Amino acid sequence: xxxxxxxxxxxxxxxxxxxxxxxxxxxxxxxxxxxxxxxxxxxxxxxxxxxxxxxxxxxxxxxxxxxxxxxxxxxxxxxxxxxxxxxxxxxxxxxxxxxxxxxxxxxxxxxxxxxxxxxxxxxxxxxxxxxxxxxxxxxxxxxxxxxxxxxxxxxxxxxxxxxxxxxxxxxxxxxxxxxxxxxxxxxxxxxxxxxxxxxxxxxxxxxxxxxxxxxxxxxxxxxxxxxxxxxxxxxxxxxxxxxxxxxxxxxxxxxxxxxxxxxxxxxxxxxxxxxxxxxxxxxxxxxxxxxxxxxxxxxxxxxxxxxxxxxx
Length: 312
What we know:
- This protein has a five-stranded mixed sheet with strand order 3-2-1-4-7. The chain has a five-stranded mixed sheet with strand order 10-9-8-11-12, sandwiched between helices. A two-stranded antiparallel ribbon has the order 5-6.
- It is built from nine helices and twelve strands.
- By secondary structure, it is of the alpha/beta class.
- The chain is globular and about 65 Å long.
- The longest helix is centred in the C-terminal third of the chain and has 24 residues, at about 230-250.
- The chain has two domains: about 5-120 and about 300-310, Nucleotidyltransferase, domain 5, CATH 3.30.420.40; about 125-295, 2-Layer Sandwich (Nucleotidyltransferase, domain 5).
């Protein structure tokens, strides 16, 4: 029986999972993300934790097939990562550099959204398909695309960066990426709240959201489910942007299934019905259309996908 480690590097914590080759999660754990502006600190913390936890299971590093790592940034084909902006580290190549901290065992890095897509295809909401697109609707909007079981990463690691396609060229406010009118500005968790705030400012319609401080996407969907018309308008407008962007993906890579994850996916069936309606309105020449499902692995999708990267 082979084992491997899946790692999901986040801005606050680094999550780890020890897996058997059949997809069984043996154990999972996490440590705080600390870099102190140095990639070496990131490497040493990860390696020390992997050594400690595998030893507790009676395993040596030599018994691992390798370590897969999901990273919050574009990863080139050769493993090079120009910048992890949110972590304050630059010029990394985990594939080449991290093995020195782990007795030379195999390491493969992948963008975190791509890792989550692999995880959902392997053991989650997209398990029945070999061609999927995972959309993660959280603070930002991530996307991972898999075609016939293989990640579509692109030549420069930008494959699947759906959150930063321009939906509204005339948008005055800037996205975190520096662009204007990105999908992320309208269909992420923060984008949905922003769309609702703009609607509130543009009319005098009664709404339970009016006067509420720090509106969240959950507030919008909770109010929409309860029948609040303005909240329903906001949810529909945000999901219209998402459905249109999904139609672009269908016309380019034609996935069999879209899987929707991230915090916004907790809106459940209401969200799913709305996205299906909007997506269908933009697809006119395709039959059958891609299925749309909710993700099932939650915050563990990244570690599952990173592990799958090693075992494939």
